[in-house]
Amino acid sequence: MDAVFTNTKERMTKTINALIAEYATIRAGRANPAVLDKISVDYYGSATPIQQLATVSATEARVLTIQPWDASVLNAIAKAIQASDLGINPQNDGRVIRLNFPPLTEERRKQLCKDVQKTAEESKVACRQIRRDSIEKLKAMKKVSEITEDDLKNGETKVQKITDDFVKQIEKIASEKEAEIMEI
What we know:
With 184 residues, the chain is of the alpha+beta class. It is built from four helices and six strands; from the N terminus they run αββββαββαα.
């Protein structure tokens, strides 16, 4: 029965880690190299992440610098950034690409907060689905007489408590990200 709880915690921890990784790609006013994580460049016929083609650094609070190791891929990186939903025009000087992040407008901040809430809700749903799977495993164990009726009830209570704890963590992470986005 402990294996069920351990598995539940592991799966919910992975959900939280995925949420944190997703939030890292949302820009909150400061230049963060993680915003480029989802952008791939067509490099000799294969989609390659920018981080595998270039050095990405935040040279100033609102400026990212991308310096490719192969100068021939410079234009491809610029095109990939323009085609993305990042909403920033890259400035290409022939050796490096600079991304100047303008301050976020109030409207954009509110939209980003909605995105944060939507992602948090998806993570909560994932946790609830993990809870349902765990309770199903406990019921299956009861059905084959591995555990008693009391063990089943105690197990369901424990799985619910684990779920509640992870949902609270998700809400805390989401509110911190919203606060980061809304700070001026």
